[in-house]
């Protein structure tokens, strides 16, 4: 009966709460709907215009009625700034003054429950503003208060029905629970259950063994008096989680693991307890654990020894974590001293061989070492400072003996160590006067080689070293020696990789007139990588700019970079278009990677695959400022125009080298004179703290200055983008464009007729005279005649001749054929075949490059100090 009454009260309270909540929600819904209608009407584009017109009521009344019908509100009114109704759904109210809208005239928008004529309502008031943000009118919309609760009134019967149903369900559930409890207690009544509980409780608390029952969630269900005494449990331990009781990590883990344990010894406060645990589930109970505890005071002595061992193991573990966090030899030595003071010694000094500090192989000369680290628990110590050379002049000092034996030497009392005092009598006297009284010296050995030594000193306030301390010191130094040797090996490899990388990169930028170029290469903090750049002069005063990035770091990446750079140099000598060059480079990378995966590859082959390397290849032509670029998985360059505006051109992007299966495409840029082209690898703009977009924005800001030279641009980029050590290596190339003077370019379109050769030769001779190059006219005319004759005889139209004057003189003959000329030695009976030989004798260099339609044969002559052709060779080839 009591349960039914409680259920009735709860259901009644819930139904009342639903009704109250429903009325609140209905009012809020009315406010939101009114505000939405009023705000939409007030902000409509024509509302403010209509209010400023001569007849606002005529324009707004139809719209007001239409909005009221379509929005579900009871009224919509438009008022002027004084609150006089201009429009209203009730025409009798037009011209009357609305109350309570004064706040809207100041620009405030609000909702309220309005009481007054014409009816109580929930309404929203929104000011209408003109483009100058001045209030020109007010819009009100609302729902009459009597209509707000209609929906709730319709739902009230359903709510009462649900409340009645809930009451029936609750009453039935209570009856079912009562019957189930009666079955679970096997029909025992309250009195019988009370007597049974008292009997069990008396037995549980009378035993002299601690008992704790933990449920499946890790909360204490029951703990007897003995458990409270042995474990120091608080009085409110029941129902608290095991982790909240402060039992220590071992005991807490046992009670939460659910595993079986038998007589496991666990320290608890000042006791050692034998713990037995058994899960309760197999015995018919719920998931949980029963643990019993016995006090084993006879094991206290053993507990002390175990604690000492545990402390030492904990210290050595901590040392293993803290020593060797970097690959720096000096820092690793400092970490060793920081770990050891004050837990092992009062002072610690670390001496290393100079060869170890330089990253070289340790030498056998161990009589001189340099103090690398010193740590003291207090200032004003008498020991030699860091950086001084420590010389072992006396053969029987503890340090020399430790190095000779290869193991630690203990000196419990330095006052009795005559050999140690003989090494440096004055320094020994100062140390003893300071209070230093005990020493353990340990050789730093790794892989059987001495790297240095470590000295542990104790002074006043510390006990003397004992044999047990020696074992800890040796273990600590052994771990540090491995870390120092690893750092030494890394330093050596890093130095070798940096040297190799810098030797594989261009040692200097070549002389050329087309571009003013500056460059930077910065290795990563963790080691060099495979980033590289190159500047390659091409025929016709053109220049190729290259930037690339190899996946990985270290020597292998540097060697791989060298192979790719050499390949690019070789392919560029063929004067290929950028997309064709990257296509050949991609094929080479694919072949090399196939060899790595082939049958000759071994399991211990540590060569780095080339697949994934990126490259950007650009060719700039100073005749007209045309630049052709192609990129394989590389970032697009930045372009700074002569006015300092920065852009990142949208160039075709092909997959990285070695992926294969995709053709390479080229993009075209027209660069005015004075433009800067900034080529870079991803290490410049991307790191752990910023993404690519942020890096590009920073780069754009750094280079947006029209007056900076390429060298100044490189300096600013390094200062702003890489303030510390970069996480990835960086290659940077900045080139400012120049244009060849139009007066130094002569071009002729040649008819496809042999008779036109003499005319073009004459015009070229006159142009050479204008340039003051009469002394080179003979050789140039011969070169031009031979190339032009070959183009007309063996080529295809159109034919064009171009002379370029720079630091050299370049003669180019272009035709529409793709047939490549070939230098050969003509027989004495041949009528032809000697033209290209003559060209090769009079020109310093000559060659062929292919265009989208046809080819260009070019020949280059030096203007000063040009060698004369060998007359005898000319006569021989001409058969004279």
Describe the structure.
With 880 residues, the protein is an alpha+beta fold. The protein has 24 helices and 32 strands. Strands 13-12-11-16-15-14 form a six-stranded antiparallel β-sheet, sandwiched between helices. Strands 18, 19, 20, 21, 24 and 25 form a six-stranded mixed β-sheet that branches. A five-stranded antiparallel β-sheet has the order 2-1-5-4-3. Helix 21 packs antiparallel against helix 22. It starts with a helix and ends with a helix. Mean pLDDT is 81; it is low at 826-833.
Short précis:
This protein is of the alpha+beta class and 880 residues long. It is found in: Cell membrane.
Q: Uncertain regions: pLDDT < 50 for 5+ in a row?
A: 826-833
Report the radius of gyration as a whole number of Å. 47 Å
Name the CATH class of the largest domain.
Answer: Alpha Beta
Number of strands: 32
Entry keywords:
Beta-Lactamase, single chain, flat, 6-stranded mixed sheet, 32 strands, alpha+beta, 880 residues
Spell out the blueprint of helices and strands.
Blueprint: H1 2-43, H2 45-51, H3 56-71, E1 75-79, E2 85-87, H4 102-105, E3 110-114, E4 121-129, E5 135-144, H5 145-148, H6 150-184, H7 190-206, E6 210-215, E7 220-223, H8 225-231, H9 249-257, E8 261-268, E9 271-279, E10 288-295, H10 300-322, H11 329-340, E11 347-352, H12 354-357, E12 368-376, E13 389-391, H13 398-405, E14 409-411, H14 418-423, H15 425-434, E15 438-446, E16 449-458, H16 467-504, E17 515-522, E18 532-537, E19 543-549, H17 555-573, H18 578-596, E20 614-621, E21 626-632, E22 638-640, E23 646-647, E24 653-654, E25 667-670, E26 676-680, H19 692-703, H20 710-721, E27 730-737, E28 745-750, H21 756-770, H22 777-794, E29 799-805, E30 808-815, H23 835-842, E31 845-850, E32 855-862, H24 871-878
Parallel strand pairs: 21-24
Antiparallel strand pairs: 1-2, 1-5, 3-4, 4-5, 6-7, 6-10, 8-9, 9-10, 11-12, 11-16, 12-13, 14-15, 15-16, 17-27, 18-19, 19-20, 20-21, 21-25, 22-23, 22-26, 26-27, 28-29, 29-30, 30-32, 31-32
Helix pairs in contact: 1-6, 10-16, 11-16, 16-17, 17-18, 19-20, 21-22, 22-23
